[in-house]
User: Fold these one by one.
Assistant:
Number 1:
Amino acid sequence: MTATPPALGARAWATVVLVGLVGQLAWTIENMYLNVFVYNTITTDPTVIAVLVAASAVAATLATLAVGAWSDRVGRRREFIAVGYVLWGATTAAFGLVRPQLPDGVALGAPEAARAVGVAVVTIVVLDCVMSLFGSGANDAAFNAWVTDSTTPANRGRVDGVLATLPLVSMLIVFGLLDGLTQRGDWELFFGIVGATTAAVGVVAWFLVRDRRPLERVADGYLASLVHGLRPSTMRAHPRLYVTLLAVAILGVSSQVYLPYLIIYLQRFLRIDAYALALGVVLILASALSVAAGRFIDRVGKVRAILPLTALLLAGLVGMFLARGLVSVIVAGTVMMGGMLGAGAAAAATVRDHTPAGRVGMVQGLRMVALVLVPMVVGPFIGAAVIVGANETYVDLGVERQVPTPWMFLFAAAIALLVAVPVTWLRRLPEERP
């Protein structure tokens, strides 16, 4: 039997919740509402959304690899978190300024309009990449490394269970307080509020975050530290870490098949006018499930918890494929989101447990490859192919527009089934020394 998990401390919990929540607030805007913004104001082509997601994933991964190795070298996280959040907020606020600049009297189908849309697409992709550099350096690299520094194997399931709820809580805040701005088309204020909040938390983080001392620092050079995790010798030395990252990647690809198109699906395919209410209820209930999952993970063990929580995710995905009304969407969506976050929390806590000493920041870069780069490059294009293949459309102001279909949930479920392979492999690998 294990003893009661050691307390994290009020200041550390405050850092986890405040810095983590506002970071997820900014990621919610980028991962979900930026897609809606592009769909509503620039182009409805799902391939553009897939390119946007993939390009930002590449930028985010490179930033996490670079900043993670850098913070390992200097042995500090606070400065990267605080300064990064301020710059992250500034670039987030700039999203609302991007629009196709159509000359007066130019029709939507004219070549001039196509060029204006093309310029807007390039601008939003570049800006998203810049934003992802700052956001991932601050949040995915520095903040997540700080969480690993500040926790122990005994309390990581609980901490990662709370962290897993923060994306849902952030969505709930956005839906409850800010969605009306998007409905009215007031995108400048929408992005501006989130950007200002993110920057303000960066200032607060300068005084709130305390690095855990002393951090074990690596002795090799920066470039050697940067590529250390990509070496075959490192993979052979830490097989449990890399097999767990494979499980993280599979779960991530599954989620990215449908997440970029979820709000559009509820709006345009199911025609649920109260989609914000539906998502709000789902987020509250799924957050409660995720917190309960954190306790379940600590009780039964992180690796043993992954498959039962993935089974919950599969049930929710099948339910979303069948759901057509408000109530059925709420039920299926709660199961889907709860399973997705619970399985992700178990896998994330396992990654922390198998992080080599002195390489915490480096592992955040590897985690981004598995959690962001691979899923966001592969998943949205699978989703876009499913949408294009289904060829469901509607007409808006005389323009035929493609719309997401429920088949994307079945494709996501098929991918999620593959997580059984690395989990079975992981159970057979011998335990490693910390």
Number 2:
Amino acid sequence: MDYSVFGEYRWTGKGFGVNLANEDGYQVFQDESLRSPHNGHLNILARSGVPGMVLWLLLHGSWAFMILDRYLRSERARDPAWASLFIYLLAFWSAFMVNASFDVFIEGPMGGIWLWSIMEVGIASCWIHQHHPEVLYNDANTRSA
């Protein structure tokens, strides 16, 4: 926080190439394999500065708002298939955000690929829900109650 929010790296961060564990004195491995001693969110702040953190928060906040809005619309329309899909996506994304609060797993493929895939599926689902909501049903006139 001292150098990322109040210090010299406020606007640019330290960058994505630097080993933060070495730079900040938190290296715990002999082979210097630890690169990010922070959680996923603070890692964004340390590497990209305040502007990057603001963009990170705006990206995830707007995505969550969009999915929550579609979920509520589906609930009001008594459309359980779409409501279930949107609440599933929101729960999956929430689990990733909580995990990122304790670990930097979204930097690697085991977390990053799934996080961005869930976000992309969410965006596509919102578009499909708005333009072709019948695709979740075998018969466009039949909805289960």
